[in-house]
Prior knowledge:
By secondary structure, chain A is of the alpha+beta class. Helices cover 40% and strands 25% of the residues of chain A.
Amino acid sequence: MAEIIVVGAGLVGSLLSIFIAGRGRxxxxxxxxxxIRLAGGNSGRSINLTLCExxxxxxxxxxxxxxxxxxxxxxxxxxxxxxxxxLTFQPYGNHREAxxxxxRSDLNKILLDYAASHYGIKFHFDEKCxxxxxxxxxxxxxxxxxxxxxxxxxxxxxxxxxAFSAVRLQMQKKLRLNFSQQYWExxxxxxxxxxxxxxxWTAEKNVIHVWPRGNYMLIGFPNLDGSFTCSLHLxxxxxxxxxxxxxxxxxxxxxxxxxxxxxxxxxxxVTDFFTHPANSMVTIKCSPWSYEGKVSLIGDAxxxxxxxxxxxxxxxxxxxxxxxxxxxxxxxxxTTLLKEFESRxxxxxNAIADLCVEHFVELRDLVGTPGFLxxxxxxxxxxxxxxxxxxxxxxxxxxxxxxxxxxxxxxxEQRTVVDxxxxxxxxxxxxxxxxxxxxxDRLMAVR
Amino acid sequence: MAEIIVVGAGLVGSLLSIFIAGRGRxxxxxxxxxxIRLAGGNSGRSINLTLCExxxxxxxxxxxxxxxxxxxxxxxxxxxxxxxxxLTFQPYGNHREAxxxxxRSDLNKILLDYAASHYGIKFHFDEKCxxxxxxxxxxxxxxxxxxxxxxxxxxxxxxxxxAFSAVRLQMQKKLRLNFSQQYWExxxxxxxxxxxxxxxWTAEKNVIHVWPRGNYMLIGFPNLDGSFTCSLHLxxxxxxxxxxxxxxxxxxxxxxxxxxxxxxxxxxxVTDFFTHPANSMVTIKCSPWSYEGKVSLIGDAxxxxxxxxxxxxxxxxxxxxxxxxxxxxxxxxxTTLLKEFESRxxxxxNAIADLCVEHFVELRDLVGTPGFLxxxxxxxxxxxxxxxxxxxxxxxxxxxxxxxxxxxxxxxEQRTVVDxxxxxxxxxxxxxxxxxxxxxDRLMAVR
Lengths: 447, 447
């Protein structure tokens, strides 16, 4: 019998196994998919992700941070493409801070390799979880190669099996689980710009490219090999939607009108569009995360968020670090340990979930508008004058490790300062004037 | 193949079958439980319910209203029992309006009998729904007597299989279903006062008895035979909870302290308490309710609410009436019909769900407090002076058929009037003074 079973060998599951093994506990991991280190091909679900300070700090704490950095592309800001093909650069931070773009599968492979080579952790692939006995606790898995159904008992089970967690479904049936899932009317689809694309915007490798278009948008993430992984965000149904773009011509017309500078660099656009799945965006919250010290949800299984802040993986990694802290503190009192884990993390994951919904609307609708750019300009100005007293929300989330709840609280306070400066007459023309500097000084003096 | 299958032969399922058959369509109903008309005994889940204007109007429209009224006890208000055994009567309406207390199983039996005798509708009991094929559409059921598993195909399937709907679970797996379920930390348990109880409060048959005690409460519903069905609302866990009351002595001490006037009339208290289940209170919302014109949720399967306003059955019956209207209007265009059904009903069921949470807190915490009684007194006064211009929320929900959304909107407007009158100095002493009457006149003149 395994001491601890982890269900799901994705980003959170593989990192969690490292933390558990690092504390001298035996752990085995089961995953329904084939080993991505062996399987080839691109499922169209491998959209890139970004790692930021808080995620990298966790990876550093187990010694795998630099391996990950070496496989990622640092990016320093957004490059906004408007419909007239004009470009505007928005730095993410005021001090040339970077976030790191990396493909989900590359990151996953690194973590699996590290877990296997440093700790000898046993991963069982092709093992789909059919059922969970919360009391035993045990899981029943079916091998997709052999068809063999097996029961695996453990002292404890962690479920890092993602947004549509099989373990959580069992908890929903058995427990009084508070639960909500809210879908966005839009979904996103992966489209590729191959590495041999050359010239114009594709020369800009150290930025995230964004084509905000109101009801839809395109985002391009750079890869180490010079390629870009783009995601098209679009309504699933309606007049302009994944459902409405039925023919090659309709698709090409739409891209020519909306993203003319992209078309020459996407030779596989038509194939990608009509073969890749449209991935849903869903916010999932639930409570409690654990059952009697025996079974606990973690990562996307416990909280699923929109990808808009690039925080999914970072938040899941922070879960692992907090769980490890609780393991240090509470030893073998697993009931208390798992409750404490939830009570430390859930307020934070709720906060980032709400912020992601808010930021998605901002990215899509506002990132290209004068009002948004002006607010960003004001924030930059305040931050330059008061680098220790003022940090914008994006920076707090991305370039610090302060709890999400704290970032949210500070931001709501700070907003009132920007609101007041926005009310200065003709602020558009006066951003660098002594008058505005005086207003900033006055407002910041009382903070 | 059946034209229409209804899953669940509870209150909504049996009434729905009557509406469908009444429109000349063939319908068969499957239920996982035995036929309650044959099965004896009391499961402890048969808490009484109350029918009000909107539910009775629907029952009248299919001709079964008077049969139901004859099996119910009309009640005209709440009789509040305080800890000192003092009683205060609060009429539900200002014009001696009644709501009707009836046991869930008696009402269900009436509807099943009516459906079978007037329309020859086929009910299949002991058939547990194991799975649903949304595309076919079809259901797979297992007979709990014979063990036989059968597949039943239909043109359309309605799921009235309650708050923990098997059909909805399938929709949640297959569709992008927005879904939330929020449990209350309290649950309720059925306790009986037998018909031979005599004297004191049990002589008051035409009221709902309420023992509000802050963190917990007892409610007593009268039955035709002179018995009362009581429900004890209490936390599931914690210092004083269903979990903490572990022994006969602890239970009796608690009742003697909290509900001394009840104890002599509950000879079966100990047995009832330790054998009856604690029923959860849960608010469930979801969307969409239907799949491609083939499958639709209805009643508790689509929206589950707290029992605090006594609206669960009434809201479910209104669902049936609205669906019937849509059937008249849209004929065989089921995709439009089911979407329209949801768009007419869901705003209303969302509104009553939120109001029920609000009212439960009010009932438990406020019903016995002077502030609450004063507000009720002010509302009664305004309503007496302006019966056409002012109706309190409870009356709008209970004694009218106005949509729940409209009742909510009107109430929020009216609250500002009561708020202003509450601010009159020494209002407690002045309720019947000309001064307050003038304030009321002035405020109502501008409405």
